[in-house]
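Margin note: ligand = 2-acetamido-2-deoxy-beta-D-glucopyranose.
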Amino acid sequence: MMMMSFRMAPPPLPLIFLLILHGVYSADDEWGVNYSSSSICALKGSTVIINCTYKYPTGHQIMKVFWTKINSPDPPDLSEDSKYRQRIQYLGDKHHDCTMRLTDVRQTDSHKYYFKFNTDKLDGKWIGVPGVTLDITLITDLQVESSGERVIEGHSVTLTCKSRCSLTDRSTFIWFKNTQSLSERTDRNNQLILQSVIREDAGNYSCAVQGHKLTSPHQYLNVICKFIFK
Ligand SMILES: *[C@@H]1O[C@H](CO)[C@@H](O)[C@H](O)[C@H]1NC(C)=O
Ligand SMILES: *[C@@H]1O[C@H](CO)[C@@H](O)[C@H](O)[C@H]1NC(C)=O
Ligand SMILES: *[C@@H]1O[C@H](CO)[C@@H](O)[C@H](O)[C@H]1NC(C)=O
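Resulting structure:
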């Protein structure tokens, strides 16, 4: 009861004043660009979507929105660059969304990217530093990691297909046991979960990403007879 009446009490005056100040002078009067992440790793040939939002003080009208690789006062628009024109798409708008899509990424796309917008006011320009770093990679470093090298019969084990790059483009992983493809496995993401293992599950496991040639080195999974632990 004490607690309740305390909570229902109106906030003290200085706090109300602060909230009003914040609303009027801070939240609405700032310039800024936010990217979903500051660095994105993607596989060659995949599609990258950079989620992005931007804001500017009220009273400005957005005239131009574009993505660029150069942080300078008057940088070139990537959609006018012959190397990008066919592959870059602005999915955002002229209000607050600056999401961008780049398809069929190449290793030469590994670079920093910035969103820039110009308003109708003379000084009303903004570039979203520090930008987003794209790292386009060929898979060269797949690796199987096991939650345990030895698993007791009846227990479960999780195998994870790892790469330097956290693969954000919803890649499809393929698992092999003793070089045979486990095509019926559709476990989540990059993991193979063996529930209640049996002796026959023992073997050499390796993984690959669909559409890419490389296969990881194999990892031996040892299944131990449960009677040993009686
Ligand atoms: C980007 O936005 C889409 C749609 O809102 C969302 O599904 C996706 O998870 C976001 N990606 C990142 C990397 O935040
Ligand atoms: C960026 O994110 C921060 C924290 O979530 C938020 O306070 C700020 O308003 C955002 N800026 C833009 C431009 O969306
Ligand atoms: C697993 O790999 C090891 C080392 O390469 C090999 O000696 C062994 O015969 C393989 N086991 C099976 C079941 O293929």
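The pocket of 2-acetamido-2-deoxy-beta-D-glucopyranose (ligand 2) is lined by residues 32-34, 53-55 (CB under 6 Å).
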